[in-house]
Amino acid sequence: MDLTAALDKLNSLLPLKARQSQLDPQLRKLHIAILRHFATAGQPLSRDQVAQQLGDTDVDAALTRLADDDLIVLSPDRRDIAGAYPFTAENRVHAVLVNGHTVHAMCALDALAIAPMFETATRIDSRCHITDTPVEIHMQGAELLSSMPGDVRVGIHWQSALGCAAQSLCMEMVFLADAETAQRWQQQDSDNTDLYELPDAVRFAAAYFRPLLEDKV
Questions:
Q1: For the chain, what is the mean pLDDT?
Q2: d(Cα 184, Cα 4) in Å, to the nearest integer?
Q3: Are 6 and 204 in contact (CB under 8 A)?
Q4: Taking residues 43-50, what's their average pLDDT?
Q5: What pLDDT, on the 0 to 100 scale, is given for residue 26?
Q6: 60-78 burial by CB neighbour count: b if 16+ within 10 A, else e?
Q7: 88 within 8 A of 105, measured Cβ to Cβ
Q8: Torsion 64-114-2-137 (CA) sign
Q9: Helix, strand, or coil here: 124?
Q10: Domain ranges of the chain
Q11: Whole-structure pTM over 0.90, yes or no?
């Protein structure tokens, strides 16, 4: 699948920008602030910080609205932010060093999005979904500086984002150590899977996530 078609498909399954655009300006700014804080501080905004963003608006109502739109993920008690695509506070396999902090990404595509989203340097430490081979990727903005192994692919097993995408679709976007491993993975369900070389995956991730930082509808 080419990148335009893939972008359209992902936006149909998980229309983050469309949902963000439907928010009122205050909630839209809050969502952007949550994303930026993950990148600069390595953690989600606290409830107190959310309250500072909102003024007189109820914190729980605001967080619930964002979570109901699957723009953020809440803690089990639904009081605190636990994630906001592409970031998660969970200890997932995709660790990203950004601005001196180690954060975690929901999936392989999310990990690749952080550097181009924020025009910054990142180091991704992850593992091949099939072989458990360590994967290390260095980026500067949208530029892919290096990867080990040198032929890493990104695989996407397309499926509906049922409920919270962090627990469904995101679990099926993975790094694969090399072309041979990627082909073996794809053969498990060739009708519903796509493979991308890293440069294409970076372009895909950037095109999908960058618009979330634009405060416009």
A1: 93
A2: 25
A3: yes
A4: 94
A5: 93
A6: eebbebbbebbbbbbeeee
A7: yes
A8: negative
A9: strand
A10: 1-210
A11: yes
